[in-house]
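Ops channel
N.P.: pipeline sanity check, posting one input/output pair.
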């Protein structure tokens, strides 16, 4: 049984608390702290945590807590990860892992120095759909892959945290991480070049970003992300003999397989509907539990080197796009 502390009690924390409760044989919801002590108490009572705390420092100093789940704003992740590690707590932190590559590099180095578990909670990396898609590619279902595309966008610019530079706002770090991770999972090669186009929100954060990526192995990809435009949320993987269409890259619902038909046009030959056991978040929790029980300091589905690689990609895109960061 792993005793868990929640650092932050916002919307995503509610979803994760419900998910943790599906595994009472593995996790105990022990303590919660947020900026608002009243919110902490309400959160504690709603999900039957043992305790709530007056502030974050009090919680991480509680010797009973073993693992801290962090769900504060992106701009705060660095200092909160560091606070937990300095108090010898294992950490599962929401995406995006940090607001910058340098911050991520520092906390990863600290975790490795202290041999403490640290992982990024980006749920699509842990889902079974990832392995299913990869098996189709490895089996040569669509032939040699040469191009991918993925998009994710919502009309959510009315949220303060998404339009405020000091809170780590902008499309890329909030929703753009998903198309970029989708592409990386199924290419897994070093990037040769990235070209981007960006529309800035009046506050200076990235409202919409479109990017073209070329990899060293010759594969090309395109991504599109926005906090001011709803998109199809779909992903495509094109091969020499056909292509895969993944409906909703943020939480895959269906994989459609297209092959060349009687004409030169591709036709759908089969489809796989995906049904998650609960809500899709359980896989990152189960892998975290297994890793900790086995004495591992990282999760195999999202090792820290992959987190750092993705943070460097985000940094390069935001720099090229002249996005206001602070």
């Amino acid at each position: 049984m792993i005793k868990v502390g929640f650092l932050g009690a916002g919307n995503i924390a509610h979803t994760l608390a419900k998910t943790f409760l599906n595994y009472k044989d593995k996790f105990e919801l022990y303590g919660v702290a947020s900026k608002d002590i009243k919110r902490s108490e309400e959160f504690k009572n709603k999900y039957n945590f043992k305790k709530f705390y007056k502030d974050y420092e009090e919680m991480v100093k509680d010797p009973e807590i073993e693992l801290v789940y962090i769900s504060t704003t992106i701009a705060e992740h660095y200092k909160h990860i560091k606070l937990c590690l300095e108090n010898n707590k294992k950490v599962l932190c929401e995406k995006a892992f940090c607001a910058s590559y340098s911050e991520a590099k520092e906390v990863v180095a600290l975790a490795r120095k202290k041999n403490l578990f640290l992982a990024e909670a980006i749920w699509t990396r842990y889902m079974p759909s990832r392995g299913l898609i990869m098996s189709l590619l490895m089996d040569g279902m669509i032939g040699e892959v040469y191009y991918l595309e993925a998009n994710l966008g919502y009309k959510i610019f009315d949220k303060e945290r998404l339009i405020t530079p000091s809170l780590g706002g902008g499309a890329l770090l909030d929703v753009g991480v998903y198309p970029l991770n989708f592409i990386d999972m199924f290419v897994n090669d070093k990037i040769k070049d990235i070209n981007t186009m960006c529309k800035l929100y009046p506050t200076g954060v990235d409202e919409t970003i479109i990017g073209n990526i070329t990899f060293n192995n010759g594969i090309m990809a395109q991504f599109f992300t926005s906090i001011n435009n709803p998109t199809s949320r779909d992903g495509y993987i094109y091969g020499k003999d056909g292509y895969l269409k993944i409906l909703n890259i943020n939480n895959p619902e269906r994989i459609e397989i297209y092959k060349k038909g009687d004409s030169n046009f591709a036709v759908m030959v089969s489809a796989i509907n995906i049904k998650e056991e609960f809500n899709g978040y359980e896989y990152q929790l189960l892998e975290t539990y297994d890793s900790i029980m086995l004495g591992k300091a990282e999760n195999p589905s999202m090792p820290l080197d992959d987190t750092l690689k993705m943070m460097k990609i985000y940094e390069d895109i935001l720099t090229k796009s002249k996005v206001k960061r602070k």
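N.P.: looks fine end to end. The chain has a mean pLDDT of 95.
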